[in-house]
Hints:
CATH topology of the largest domain: Rossmann fold
Oligomer: single chain
Strand order of the largest sheet: 3-2-1-4-5
Distance between the termini: 38 Å
Number of helices: 6
Largest sheet: 5 strands, parallel
CATH class of the largest domain: Alpha Beta
CATH superfamily of the largest domain: HUPs
Order of helices and strands: EHEHEHEHEHEHEEE
Strand content: 15-25%
Helix content: 25-40%
Radius of gyration: 17 Å
Amino acid sequence: MVYNNSPGDKVFVSWSGGKDAYLSLLLARERGFDTACLLSFVGGDGYSRSHGLKTEMLEQQASALGIPLEMKEVTWESYEQGFEEAVNRIKEEYGLTGGVFGDVNLEEHRQWVEKMCERCGINYNLPLWQMEERRVSEELIRRGGRALIVAIRSDLVDQSWLGRILDDRYIEYCISKNISPCGEGGEAHTLVVDGPLFRKPLQYEPGEIKHDRNRSLLKVGRAYSRQGGN
């Protein structure tokens, strides 16, 4: 783990909607950070850049967690510029001095975070850094977090795991296949639907499965009652 802020400092959490961002949020809270907002980067198509989640699901998560969500529309080509613009804006708006990121073991990701945070004049914090990959998923489960598997690399993970909650069986499956139980190689992405800090579970509805080369994505939308309520 890497912490460069102090307890009481206001920070944002880089928010994908998945388990690593959520576990980082929990650990940042335990560290005593004031997690003032979540920050997500989205495309013009209404889906997140990181996990391909509908923005309405990110909004529902933020509402359930009781934390403001800030979103910035970017392309992959404008990602760095968009990051700098978004962080500089929320830094002033919320009085932030740092950001929290869910990176685990990929050195190039850490280097990018360091570079961008230095450029924006804020500290960076990596609560999961160099945590054993199996332990990341085990820690989520131990704490009562529920993460829905919404995307897989179909050349590595069987499609039957799409739409299932990440559990001990999935961890053992990954170990038997010699792939990362926490998805460091892009093996799987998740949507956290319940756990500590959630005021209520997410109401979601699985949709169709999209296939793109070696990636399969489960479309997940918000479930509405017949009366149109929340």
